[in-house]
């Protein structure tokens, strides 16, 4: 069973999370993509259950400005989402967890790649699902954080965008500026932790070639390419099952 909890980020933003405690000192932290939430279009719900079946706890958070967490969407930034992950890791440490695996999906994978894990000996591995790891090149399109949309954000205070479910999310000007600063593709190559990249061959948003390229440049890295896997793995049941199975196998290797 999962319990709804709230975690305070460093600037007192309350982050909503679903936490399962399996009486284990091992936990997997699940971090969703931009404009999404802790369910990640259902894939995190299924993944969390399979992880729990192995005897490991899970925590899946809503980043600030997303889902049930506090915060204003257009005030969300890369640096603030890094703070959200770090605050959650500190919370897990305070709860007695000795071993942590951090999993990020899409934009969340890029955030996971930017955390300074030298501060957290408890983190044992990273998992990147269909990661937007190309130093945010994929976001420089007219549907996301293009120069055209930046001009709209400068004029109106934000740019309006809609996710697959039709839910509004507003991108603020600070986010437009930060994509020129942070380099997840470069940063993850410096992280000395085991890494698993999981990416669908049919991903329509972020090409699997991004994960392939980054994997090839990383040490201590594994790559799983999923047949018929789209972005979020939510359009093909077998693809989602394959992604979950490969992920759980890796978690068992680490724990």
3D structure, described in words:
With 255 residues, the chain is an alpha/beta fold. The protein has a single domain, classed as Alpha/Beta hydrolase fold, catalytic domain (Rossmann fold), CATH 3.40.50.1820. Helices cover 33% and strands 24% of the residues. The protein has eight helices and ten strands. The strands form two sheets. The protein has an eight-stranded mixed β-sheet, with helices on both faces. It has a two-stranded antiparallel ribbon with strand order 7-8. β9, α7 and β10 (221-226) form a beta-alpha-beta unit. α1 packs across α8 (237-254). The protein is globular and about 50 Å long.
Show the helix and strand layout.
Layout: E1 3-8, E2 14-20, E3 26-31, H1 43-53, E4 57-61, H2 78-94, E5 99-105, H3 107-114, E6 123-129, H4 147-156, E7 158-162, E8 168-172, H5 173-178, H6 184-188, E9 195-200, H7 208-217, E10 221-226, H8 237-254
Parallel strand pairs: 3-4, 3-5, 5-6, 6-9, 9-10
Antiparallel strand pairs: 1-2, 2-4, 7-8
State the CATH class. Answer: Alpha Beta
Average of pLDDT: 96
Describe the largest sheet: 8 strands, mixed
Number of strands: 10
How many helical elements? Answer: 8
Q: Under CATH, the topology is which?
A: Rossmann fold
Based on CA atoms alone, the radius of gyration comes out at 17 Å
Please tell me the CATH architecture by its name.
3-Layer(aba) Sandwich
Q: What portion of residues belong to β-strands?
A: 15-25%
As residue ranges, the low-confidence spans are none
Number of domains: 1
Helix amount, in percent? 25-40%
CATH H-level homologous superfamily name: Alpha/Beta hydrolase fold, catalytic domain
What sequence of helices (H) and strands (E) makes up the elements?
EEEHEHEHEHEEHHEHEH
Shape: globular
Largest sheet strand order:
1-2-4-3-5-6-9-10
Report, as a whole number of angstroms, the end-to-end distance. Answer: 21 Å
């Amino acid at each position: 069973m999962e319990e709804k909890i709230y975690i305070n980020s460093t600037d007192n933003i309350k982050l909503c999370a679903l936490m399962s405690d399996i009486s284990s000192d091992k936990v997997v932290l699940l971090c969703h993509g931009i404009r999404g939430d802790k369910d990640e279009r259902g894939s995190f719900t299924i993944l969390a259950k399979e992880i729990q079946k192995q005897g490991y706890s899970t925590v899946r958070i809503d980043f600030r400005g997303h889902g049930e967490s506090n915060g204003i969407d257009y005030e969300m930034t890369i640096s603030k989402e890094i703070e959200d992950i770090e605050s959650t890791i500190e919370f897990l440490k305070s709860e007695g967890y000795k071993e942590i695996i951090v999993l990020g999906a899409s934009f969340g994978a890029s955030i996971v790649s930017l955390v300074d894990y030298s501060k957290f000996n408890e983190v044992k591995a990273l998992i990147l699902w269909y990661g937007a790891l190309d130093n945010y090149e994929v976001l420089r399109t007219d549907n996301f954080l293009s120069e055209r949309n930046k001009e709209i954000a400068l004029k109106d205070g934000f740019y309006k965008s809609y996710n697959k479910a039709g839910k509004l999310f507003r991108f603020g000007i600070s986010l437009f500026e930060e994509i020129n600063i942070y380099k997840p593709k470069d940063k993850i190559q410096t992280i000395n932790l085991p890494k698993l990249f999981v990416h669908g061959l049919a991903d329509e948003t972020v090409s699997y070639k991004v994960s392939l390229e980054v994997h090839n440049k990383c040490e201590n890295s594994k790559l799983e390419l999923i047949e018929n896997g789209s972005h979020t793995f939510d359009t093909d049941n077998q693809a989602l099952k394959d992604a979950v199975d490969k992920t759980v196998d890796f978690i068992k290797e680490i724990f």
